[in-house]
Design goal:
By secondary structure, this protein is an alpha/beta fold. Helices cover 41% and strands 14% of the residues. Helix 1 crosses helix 6 (180-192). It binds NADP nicotinamide-adenine-dinucleotide phosphate.
């Protein structure tokens, strides 16, 4: 079979190309060409948001898989153009080229809601496919993990960067992360199994996890301690908007944040029944397999000790822990007893220095504050404190 893949150069596209080639299919990838050519595929450069689809190139194809999509708008790359108009162009081109089999990859949270352009345009693209009269299958994945993904990559970077993680809300939204290999298998199975024609399938992981559990699993995979802190959603929205405005690769786009707020989950049974999909779970082991290829955030980390050397660091510095604790306690005593002595001292009415800070009821804490009493010279047994009035 010769299969055209719109969006074949992206994260999911590359895995789909691999899965289809492994089954002996020939692949033609359609994309603007910003991310290079996926291994083993021919690339047909084409801006689906603006240009007509080269129908001639589709004539020899037996099926088309649509994976073209964006997470943030940028110039002519609007949700409307890439999700809705590009899908309509592809459907029209398939009609013209006599290509009947169309597999459309959407997202499990798509729904009609004009206030949420990402969700709404994904939904309208699905509806256009269902109304096309072609032999379609719609696949609706949840958040996808695998080499080159957004989810694990961003979480690993943030967890390595700092020991505190601001989770969206209370972290109780529900996710069913799905392995990118399972998404690619689902596409390949849809092409192989006529039973899936006319069907819409959730392609989701086997377990429902809270966002908190997902973050905890990633931290476990990375092997770093983490404090997960609930963060009000409005604050996260502001942060996502700021990141979206200042960088082309934000940690989370407003559309992705909304998906995390709503949750990404679905029903595994129809895909299991018709596509034979048995999804892999999302575990710390899955994270470990991806972690090595993930670079640092902003080129560094606020964590003082690298996890790989953590055990060695503790062992090497253990002898210093006792003296450090004693020193800390002494410093604490030095400071508090100094204050206490100053208070006692200031309570003695001997007009000698104007620099006493105690004013009769409470200490102003300010050196040189007005005083109605005076201080004594520092007793010789007292440590020299910076605030001691000489
Ligand atoms: N990643 C996830 O967690 C996830 C979850 C659920 C659903 N999905 C859906 O799965 C699909 C693939 O996602 P992904 O993560 O692989 O996205 P991706 O890595 O951003 O890839 C998107 C693909 O679309 C192509 N594309 C974008 N604009 C285009 C245009 N104007 N004309 C032609 N091609 C264009 C890109 O190539 P160029 O940039 O070179 O044009 C790229 O090949 C999307 O529909 C997405 O909504 C993804």
């Amino acid at each position: 079979m010769k299969v055209a893949i719109a969006g074949g150069s992206g994260f999911v596209g590359r895995h789909v190309v691999e899965a289809l080639r492994a089954r002996g299919h020939v692949v033609l990838a359609l994309a603007r060409g910003r991310r290079g050519v996926p291994l083993g595929a021919e690339l047909l450069p084409c801006d689906l948001a603006r240009d007509p689809v080269p129908t001639g190139a589709l004539r020899g194809c037996d099926a088309l898989v649509n994976l073209a999509g964006i997470k943030r708008e940028d110039g002519s790359q609007t949700f409307e153009a890439v999700h809705v108009e590009a899908t309509r162009r592809l459907l029209a081109a398939c009609g013209e080229a006599g290509l009947r089999r169309f597999v459309h990859v959407s997202v499990v949270c798509s729904r009609p809601d004009p206030r949420l352009p990402y969700h709404d345009t994904k939904w309208r693209a699905e509806e256009a496919v269902r109304a096309s009269g072609l032999d379609f299958t719609v696949l609706r994945p949840a958040v996808i993990f695998g080499p080159g993904d957004d989810m694990v990559t961003h979480l690993v970077r943030m967890i390595r960067f700092a020991a505190v993680f601001p989770v969206v809300g209370h972290g109780d939204s529900i996710l069913q992360p799905v392995d990118v290999r399972d998404v690619a298998e689902a596409v390949a199975a849809a092409l192989d199994r006529p039973r899936s024609i006319g069907g819409t399938y959730d392609v989701v992981g086997p377990e429902r996890l809270t966002l908190h559990q997902v973050v905890r699993t990633v931290a476990e995979g990375v092997g770093l301690p983490l404090h997960i802190v609930p963060t009000p959603i409005p604050i996260q929205r502001v942060a996502a908007r700021v990141m979206d405005a200042v960088t082309s690769a934000p940690l989370s786009t407003p559309a992705q944040l909304q998906m995390l707020v709503d949750g990404l989950y679905g029903d595994t049974k129809p895909a299991r029944r018709d596509l034979g999909l048995v999804p892999r779970p999302f575990t710390a082991e899955s994270v470990r397999a991806l972690e090595a290829a993930i670079g640092p955030l902003l080129g560094g980390s606020l964590r003082l000790v690298d996890r790989r050397t953590h055990g060695e660091w503790v062992a090497a510095h253990r002898p210093a822990f006792g003296p450090a604790i004693v020193l800390g306690l002494w410093a604490w005593w030095w400071r508090t007893s100094g204050t206490a002595w100053r208070r006692v001292d200031c309570s003695c009415p001997r007009p000698r220095s104007p620099s006493c800070t105690w004013t009769g009821g409470r200490s102003s804490g300010r050196r040189g504050a007005t005083s109605r009493t005076a201080s004594r010279p520092r007793p010789s047994f007292m440590p020299r404190a910076p605030w001691w009035p000489e």
